[in-house]
Design goal:
This is Glyoxylate reductase/hydroxypyruvate reductase. Pfam families: 2-Hacid_dh, 2-Hacid_dh_C. InterPro entries: D-isomer_2-hydroxyacid_DH (IPR050223), D-isomer_2_OHA_DH_cat_dom (IPR006139), D-isomer_DH_CS1 (IPR029752), D-isomer_DH_NAD-bd (IPR006140), NAD(P)-bd_dom_sf (IPR036291). Keywords: Oxidoreductase. This protein is α/β, with parallel strands linked by helices and 328 residues long. It folds into two domains: 127 residues, Rossmann fold (3-Layer(aba) Sandwich), CATH 3.40.50.720; 184 residues, NAD(P)-binding Rossmann-like Domain (Rossmann fold, 3-Layer(aba) Sandwich), CATH 3.40.50.720. It contains 13 helices and 13 strands. The strands form two sheets. Strands 8-7-6-9-10-11-12 form a seven-stranded parallel beta sheet, with helices on both faces. The two termini are 39 Å apart.
Length: 328
Amino acid sequence: MAKEELPGVLILDIGGTQGVLENLAALLKKHFHLITMKEFLENKEEMSKKIQSVFVFECRPTIDRELLESLPNLKVIGNSGVGVDHLDLKMISSFGVKVTNTPHAVADPTADIGMALMLASARRLVEGCQIAVSPDTKHFAVDWLGVEVTRATLGIIGMGSIGYKVAQRARAFNMRILYHNRNRRRKEEEEAVGAHYCEKMEDLLQQSDFVMLIVNLTPETHRLIGKKELSLMKPTATLINISRGAVIDQDALVEALQSKVIRAAALDVTYPEPLPRDHPLLKLNNIIITPHIGTATVQAIHMMAEEAIANILAVLNGQPIPSEVFPK
């Protein structure tokens, strides 16, 4: 099929620090005529007619009213990733444009990063690495201790597909698993991983050695964990966040970590990202922060692109859409 006959897809750019990775662009080119934002802005009149879809990679390009008004033939926005809090679903829907995401590709790698953060924080891996490589280290202190994950209590807040995969992994560590979710899982699903349902989040917070946040960012979950919730946690507990930064009141977290209300925190997400370089969270030694790498694996990025492509093609071809996201 000639390039001109392929449906146009708008992307921010190819390569560089913010563009679509080269190998993903090659994947997209098999199905679409790729149009970068620069090409679109330089020749709006011609390009606006060709663009039928937008591929959103790492929350880019920004989808605003001005862009939607300039794309008369736009049918679908294919988001690479599961979180869509950067998209105004109601506004997009008002233009008759569909939104899709990629929940299947993200579950395993995100569950893996949750386990990695829990283990790294429990055993103080980042600190330990710094001690081992420091030119000032003359000996290893015998009183430098972490805590065990095996047989500890894990509280999962948000038992969707990622939360459930965390529970499957935690079971191999003989952890006691508690969970809080809008909807209770089926009895056989609970039994398969040995998970116990807590109707009240407070009960989970009071009992858990590790609390892992795996919820979508919505008005209901914004600052879900604040001063009150942190004060309910054990002083020996660790808070792990693999959802979205704004799910935690970060000022309250700074206070809780400084005054040892909780033992530690491990975050793959913050608000904003990256944090300002003088942010107090960056000065604490009882926290691990990673740069939002939950799905940053060679395999996951490829699978997410494939899933996004399948969604976009389904919309353009009038077929059932594997993963459509609807406005609330």
